[in-house]
Amino acid sequence: MTTKTSADLANEVINLVSVERIDEDRFVASAAPDEHQSGAGRVYGGLVVAQALAAAEATVPADRPPGSFQCRFLRPGNESKPIHYRVERDLDGGSFTHRRVVADQDGKPILTCSIMFHRGESGVAHQPQMPEVPAPKDIRAELLSRHRSGETLSAALNAFLIEPSPIEFIPVSAEQWDPTIPSDAPVCAWLRIATPLSDDPRLHRAILAYASDMALLQAADVRHALSWFRGEINQPSLDHAIWFHDEVRADEWLLYVTESPWAGRGRALTRGQMFASDGRLVASTAQEGLIRLLKPKE
Q1: For residue 36, how many other CB atoms are within 10 A of its CB?
Q2: Is 237 a catalytic residue?
Q3: 3-state SS of the chain: helix, strand, coil percent to 5?
Q4: Poorest-confidence range of 26-40, 106-120, 156-170?
Q5: 145-201 confidence digits (pLDDT tens)
């Protein structure tokens, strides 16, 4: 168990998503420190997504933010090795810029992605309403009260909620993270990085990308009362997409709302929406992953 605080881990994540430039269109990211390794040997998908986005953004003018990001995970990356990123400049147009990025280790691609950048224009606007859920401080108080009253969560889930983490993560319903009854209700969680950030919007987008991989496949698990805390499933991500809608601060609370409209043939499709605490929809996400049963349900 690490002796570092959540803020310490968060500052290390800031360094991890800041890729080093080798030449005009090539970048490298250092191997993750031990505290950021899962122990399974497989690099966290959100980290590769954030680094690929950072590499692409380094080749684009600062006044042209990303509009969308789509990637495919090809191989499980090794979390103890550096990752190299190669950027292809497909388009530099009047309104749009397009980049492709390949992430590789040992000469083999582990991720490919495409990113669209748009300078932004005036036009019509609409968005869904942010769900009404308790505030993070109220959920924390409820979980503390349940703990003091002797009502305990599973050991694995409790460790997930209380151990130091670079991303503060507060599920609106803790039961959705260790479900015993199938439910098609959306999975909602508050999240933010555990340290203040600079005002660099690229850093905030990179942290949002890092965190966007945290709760998507959970929406498929809860539909079938499956739990990776109980060792019932293995669920690697196959692809990942982010649509950036508005400016965001990743060091302020974001509500992540995820759902799964379909699962079958060993795969599950999930999608999500990220709201700022003021109700703005700042990003939408989608992901497909494998859902492999490791042991029969009791």
Answers
A1: 17
A2: yes
A3: 25, 35, 40
A4: 26-40
A5: 776 676 666 666 776 777 899 999 999 998 888 888 999 999 999 999 999 999 999
Determine the Cα–Cα distance for residues 12 and 140; give it in Å rounded to an integer.
Answer: 25
The CATH class given to the 6-120+133-293 domain equals mainly beta
Does 178 participate in catalysis according to the annotation?
no
Check if the beta carbon of residue 167 is closer than 8 Å to that of residue 193.
Answer: yes
pLDDT tens digit sequence for 204-244: 999 999 999 999 999 999 999 998 888 889 999 999 999 99
Domain ranges of the chain: 6-120+133-293
Q: Which helix (H) or strand (E) holds 7?
A: helix 6-16
Which residue is catalytic, options 178, 213, 221, 251?
A: 213
Out of 26-30, 92-96, 121-125, 291-295, least confident range: 291-295
Q: Which two tokens stand for residue 257?
A: 């709302």
How, if at all, do strands 292-293 and 281-290 pair? unpaired
Contact assessment for residue 85 and residue 55, using Cβ atoms and an 8 Å cutoff: yes
Contact criterion met (CB below 8 Å) for 9 and 36 = yes
Q: Determine which one of 227, 235, 237, 284 is catalytic.
A: 237
Q: Which amino acid belongs to residue 4?
A: K
